[in-house]
Structures are given as C-alpha cells and as structure tokens.
Amino acid sequence: MLYANTTEKLRQLETELKVHGLWSSVPPSNEAMANTSPFSCDVMSFENWVQFIFIPKMEQLINAQNALPSNIAIAPMAHHVWSHQPHLHGLIKIFDELDRMLSEQ
C-alpha cells in the first residue's frame, strides 16, 4: 500500500510541475546530476532536482521493492522555495503529505 500511495504522490508532483510550467524537457548537465549537496541547490533549481533526482530515485526504490526513506523532510524546502507563490501551494501540500506519509510508515 505504501508503494502505491507513494507512486500516486509522485504522479501528482509530476502533474503539478507540468501544469505550472516547471517540468523541463532538458536535463541538467552531468556535473549537476552528480552534485551531492542537499537538493543540489547550488547547481539546479528545486523543481529540476524533484524531476531529475527525487522522482527517479523514488521510482527506483519502488520498482525494486526496496525500503522507502522514513526520515524524509522535503516539504520544508518546498515551503522555502515556493511559499511566496500562492499558485504553487498545491505542490507544497503534496510534499507535506508525502513527508508525513513516509515518516509514519
């Protein structure tokens, strides 16, 4: 059930990013993709990190039936980046729900 619910939240994130024009057809550079700083915030936008790092990593874990992270806190970054943009509060809500769901497993 956790895998199905997480997959649904990932789909919601993808849909919302696309609706708001934040989904990119161009991936970050190989150097940016290899960055290990939190959210790779010094080399790519948060929405690019979500699209190219977070969603694929979560999908890999789900597809392999590996344990999902239980100590996750992505919502605070979403609040930091998007809270001043009311039209993006739906994205923040999805991260709030995802963080809560994974932390309660």
From TrEMBL:
<dbReference type="InterPro" id="IPR036814">
    <property type="entry name" value="YqcC-like_sf"/>
</dbReference>
<protein>
    <submittedName>
        <fullName>YqcC family protein</fullName>
    </submittedName>
</protein>
<feature type="domain" description="YqcC-like">
    <location>
        <begin position="6"/>
        <end position="100"/>
    </location>
</feature>
<dbReference type="InterPro" id="IPR023376">
    <property type="entry name" value="YqcC-like_dom"/>
</dbReference>
<dbReference type="Pfam" id="PF04287">
    <property type="entry name" value="DUF446"/>
</dbReference>
<dbReference type="InterPro" id="IPR007384">
    <property type="entry name" value="UCP006257"/>
</dbReference>
